[in-house]
Structure formats: C-alpha cells, structure tokens
Amino acid sequence: MSKRRLDELDQKIVEVLAEDARTSNRKIAAELGVTEGTVRGRIKRMEDEGQIRITAVTNIDHLRNPTLAYIWIEVDSAAEVKAVAQALADTPQIGFVAVTLGRFDILAITLVQNNGQLADFLNTKVSVIPGVRRTECSLGVTFVKHDYRMSKILG
Amino acid sequence: MKDAVAERIPMHSLQMDEADHKLVSLLRQDGRMPFKTLAEKTGLTENTVRSRLRRLEEQDLLRVVAVTDFEAAGFSLMLAVGVQVEGRSAAEVAADLANFPEVFSVCQVVGSHDIECLMVAEDQEAVSQLITQRLAAVPGVRRLLPAMAIDVLKNQPNWVLFDKSRTAEGKDA
Q1: How do residues B143-171 score in pLDDT, each as one tens digit?
Q2: Which of B9, B31, B76 sits opposite A55 (nearest CB)?
Q3: Domain A60-139, CATH among 3.40.50.970, 3.40.1190.20, 3.30.70.920, 3.40.50.300
Q4: Are A23 and A16 in contact (CB under 8 A)?
Q5: Cα separations (Å) of B132 from A17, B95, B104, B123?
C-alpha cells in the first residue's frame, strides 16, 4: 500500500513541525502566507493518512550508557517468519521490527545497558518465541546518527 | 510510566519524575494534545504543565516533532546495511556514512560488522546507485551486507539523538 506523497506546501509545514510541532497554526500560516484553516486542514490530512505523526522524542544522551542492540533473527521455516516478527513487535521493549530479505529473516532493535542485559533479554524474550532458530547481535558502541524525522508510520 | 524500550536504563540524574514521564507518554501518543487536556489527564494545572514542558525542552531532554513516513517522503524502500571496515577507523567511516541524507541511522557496533546503518531509497535503481557506487566509494568500506526491509512491523523513534539528527537535509524534497 503506497502512501500519497507530500506536496510542496505539506513539506513546508512539516519542516516547521519537525523542529517544533507545538508551533501554532497561526504562526505557521503567517510564515507560509496561507490561511490558518489551510494549515489546520493540511496537518489533519497528513495525520489521518499516516503521512506524518506528531510525537514526543526524548534525548538518548540523557540515559546512562544506552546501547543499541541490533538483533538479527533466523527463523526455523519461511512460513513462520511473519508470526515470529509479530511476536517480536508485541514485545514492549523492542522499538523496531522488520522482516528482511538477505542477511537474516528479521531485524529487531532494542536498547540495553550492557552485555549481561542483552544476554538476559535474548534468553527470556527472544529465544523463547516459537520458530526462532538462531540470533546474531550487533551491539552499539557509538550512536552516530539518527534522523528521527524519518520513520515508518503504521496503523 | 517510562516507556518500555528504555525502562531498563537509568537516567543520568533525576531529571524526570513520574509526572514528567506521564506528560511525555501522553505527548508520544499525540504531540499536539492541548495544554488543557494534558492538565486534565495528569491532574496538574495548565500552568504547571506549561512550565514542566518548557523545562524539559530547555534541558534538551524533550522535543515534540513531526515524524514523516518514508513512503510519503518519496522513498519506497528501507534497508538495513552492515558495513565491514578495513584500513581506516570505523568511527571515521561511520561519520562519512552519516553524511548521506538517505542513511538516516548510523551506529558503530561490535559483532560480525563494524557499523550498522538504516537507509531509504526511492526505487531499485536508487538502491543500486547508493550501495554499489556511493557507499562503496567511501574510503575504508570493505564490504556492505544489505538486508531489505520488506515489512516494517514497528518503528518507534522514542529515544533518539538530538543535534546530529538535524544535519540531514535535502532528500526529503
């Protein structure tokens, strides 16, 4: 299912909202030379169609030793991939889940504080999911970039 | 009340109390929730809500932002690419990779690869260009091992890098 692409005005509004989404419609309207109603309507449409999501993000630098764990998962049989991915997505501690082609069947990403926590997480939350055959992890050392403006908006 | 992805990780100091966590959690659901509603749902006064949010923003702890769906931004494909580095420090290579606007996430890691990247591309031709030419040309890149995301089931950008994330420009157009 492909989503409608943002047009030029949508993009200009999103640029403002990507910096501070609590900027008033009135201010955005004045800045862009359109009516407040247009801004309100555009934002509503973009949210309704799942093109944008307005949300709070928090600064990872305020956590103590946050370590990204990329968990790559191989599934027992191809028919089970979807169910395993869904079980991972239902695990609250996991922030990202994608079914992939290539390296492994599934990539799941979580945050841990150290190796011990990762091992515990794998043993109690991942390996216990029926269909998980093998996992391989990349453990973050330095988080260099994450452009939070880019995401997959679901639902 | 702290979100589940980060629940096991303590913060540097007591910068957020329960009420702060509650506010953040409400704003994660709806970033444009009016101050009045936030006040009703937390039992705080509207003024307290305003001043708490201002404090969290001033401490560079919180931002309320618009996140764009990559498809709506014109990219139909997402890839997770492992990078093996040779003859150069992984930190330097990671910094170079971070300069590509389509590469929206870069982390230096330990494991079978030295760097994990997440990236988007417009189509198959763009993937080919990006991986086999542009990324492959970065000095120190030995091997690129891509996985194409065919179904993203979850993507919660809750705890993120702040300043560096604003360096990406251009490709959203």
Answers
A1: 999 999 999 999 988 888 886 444 344 33
A2: B31
A3: 3.30.70.920
A4: yes
A5: 35, 19, 18, 14
Q: Which residues contact B153 (CB under 8 A, 6 or more apart)?
A: A85, A86, A88, A89, A97, A98, A99, A154
A97 to chain B, closest Cα gap in Å: 5
Min Cα separation A89/chain B (Å): 6
Q: Which of residues 69-108 of B touch A (CB under 8 A)?
A: 69-74, 76, 78, 80, 82, 91, 94-95, 97-98, 103-108
CB neighbours of residue B54 within 10 Å = 11
Q: In the A/B pair of chains, how many CB contacts fall below 8 A?
A: 311
**Beta-carbon separation of A139 and B109 below 8 A:** yes
Q: Which residues, numbered 18 to 77 in chain B, qualify as contacts with chain A under a Cβ-Cβ cut-off of 8 Å?
A: 24, 27-32, 59-74, 76
Instruction: Tell me which residue range forms the domain holding B44.
Output: 4-58
| Cβ-based neighbours of B124, under 8 Å, separated by 6 or more | B77
At A2 the pLDDT is 74
Calpha distance B119→B127 (Å, rounded): 9
Query: Measuring CA to CA, which residue among B140, B75, B48, B113 is closest to residue A5?
Result: B75
Return the CATH fold of A8-48: Arc Repressor Mutant, subunit A (1.10.10)
Test the A interface: residue of B3, B33, B59, B107 with most A CBs within 10 Å:
B107
Residue B153 tokens, joined:
């089931």
Q: What is the pTM of this model?
A: 0.91
Q: How far apart are CA B117 and CA A96, in angstroms?
A: 13
Query: Domain coordinates of chain A in residue numbers?
Result: 8-48, 60-139
pLDDT at A65: 85
